[in-house]
Amino acid sequence: MAKRILIQQTSAGEPVIAGEVSVYPVARSYRINFPAARGGIVWNRPLAVIVEDSSGSRQIIPIQDRTRQLQIAFLAAGFFGTLLIWLIFRRSK
After folding, report:
1. Which of 14, 26, 35, 92 has the most C-beta neighbours closer than 10 Å?
2. Cα–Cα distance measured from residue 91 to residue 93, given in angstroms and rounded to the nearest whole number
3. Which residue, 16, 42, 12, 14, is CA-closest to 27?
4. One domain, residues 6 and 29
5. H/E element, 69
């Protein structure tokens, strides 16, 4: 049986109890296993917080990962900046 190289897993953490409210953190992890070596890379990111009150009602509050959004924005700006510079120098030749 082949071992999976990329594994995605979503899990809820241990609850934090504050008064009559329980708060559960939810995270998604990505694991990359290297078949030729022992070990790999693990990347965790927050997804949401589940808030449960004493009556049993639950509310899911999503978490916006600003760091990931900034990384994507910088990557896009670098790509389009490089494309723009390439187009400018291509026309000047």
Report:
1. 26
2. 6
3. 12
4. yes
5. helix 66-92
Residue-range definition of the domain harbouring residue 24: 1-62
Buried b (16+ CB within 10 A) or exposed e, 49-82: bbebeeeeeeeeeeeeeeeeeeeeeeeeeeeeee
- How many whole angstroms separate alpha carbon 12 and alpha carbon 56? 17
* Statement to judge: residues 54 and 87 lie in one domain: no
Beta bridge partners of 36: none
Residues 6+ apart with CB under 8 A from 88: none
Count of other CB atoms within 10 angstroms of residue 34: 10
pLDDT tens digit sequence for 29-43: 999 988 777 788 898
The model carries a pTM of 0.64
